[in-house]
Automatic annotation (TrEMBL):
Name this polypeptide is given: Phage portal protein
Native organism: Gracilibacillus salitolerans
UniProt xrefs under Pfam families: Phage_portal (PF04860)
InterPro entries hit by this protein: Phage/GTA_portal (IPR006944), Portal_HK97 (IPR006427)
Amino acid sequence: MKFFQRLKYSLYNAYAAWKGDGFDFSSWMGKTFWGIDNSTLATNETIFSAVTRLSNSMATLPLKLYQNYEMKQNSASDVLINDPNPNMTGFEFIRNLETQRDEKGNGYALIERDIRLQPSRLTLIHPDYVEPVIERNSKELWYQVLGEDGNRYYVHNMEMLHIKHIVSSNSLKGISPINVLQNANDFDKAVREFSLKEMQSAPNSFILKYGGNLDTEKRQRVIDDFKRFYKDNGGILFQEQGVEITPIERKYLAADTLVTERITRSRVANVYNMPVTMLNDTEGQSYSSNEQLMRMYVDLTLMPIVRQYEQEFNRKLLTPAERKAGFYFKFNTKALLRADTSTQADYYTKAIRSGWLKPDEVRQLEDQPPEGGNAAKLWVSGDLYPIDMDPSKRKSTNNSTNNED
């Protein structure tokens, strides 16, 4: 009871502060706050591709509130899934939160509550303006937020969604993947600039040979004639007696740039913990089916991220009483693992015949309305029997007995 009273007091103080005039964080969204976007994310197409893949995947996954495997709805699920704030849909909220995490290493969203302490609004906060701190006496985590007015505000950890990458020792903030990729970005940028200079440089160079018995004045005349001929004739040169012109061949090898790009894609894929195929690098990659590739992506890349989101939502958007009653948020990762039509049909057939999936549940998975009646029942194949069933009651035994009679 004492813990609940303390938590309620903390939430009430935070709620009262946010509802003050000019302190509802609504003025934080805008051009002045975000500034001009010249970040690495906006200037590096490989990192942009990786972040887009992750953020779109998380935003696309169906998110539902369940109670003991049955879908439910309450104020928290409505805010999170449908209307997080007046400026965003649920899709955009999840995608922007994941983009912050993948760009800055941390994604923050302020939880605003109504008079019943139920979530009423989720507002994204720029990671550069948030700093986690530990309160000296209680040892609880708070977030120090720098407001647009220059003041500092403190938000209890139960009122701030914090999605992050892994953290270093004795730290509370996630490590930015873009900072980890700094050396790779510098190398990639240097190669690109060098390649661009090579392509933009003069296409031809020459070795000009003339007799060694020419004095200074005649040598200068030969050089001047060479320049004039090259300029006046569009690069066409006339080789005269006593003068030999040998072109210097300059080759730009596009393969060198391709190798560098493959190295960059591999490093970006490693940092973001995803198959390099997801960044359109298929050389040397072999998958028996698209389902196998997606399963690797889901298992190795998305599942840790999904688990972090689910636990953060469950802990901070649901009350202890709701969690004890069996409520929980869950992303449906199977939405990314759908096979081709033939394989999917075989999967459903085996599930129905084995008695662990109802026909109506299959219809719902295929976005069809349930029929009810027998379609809402579990069925079992006629050639299967419980192992402890009396053999005399099996259909084959009865048939043989009838035939003998």
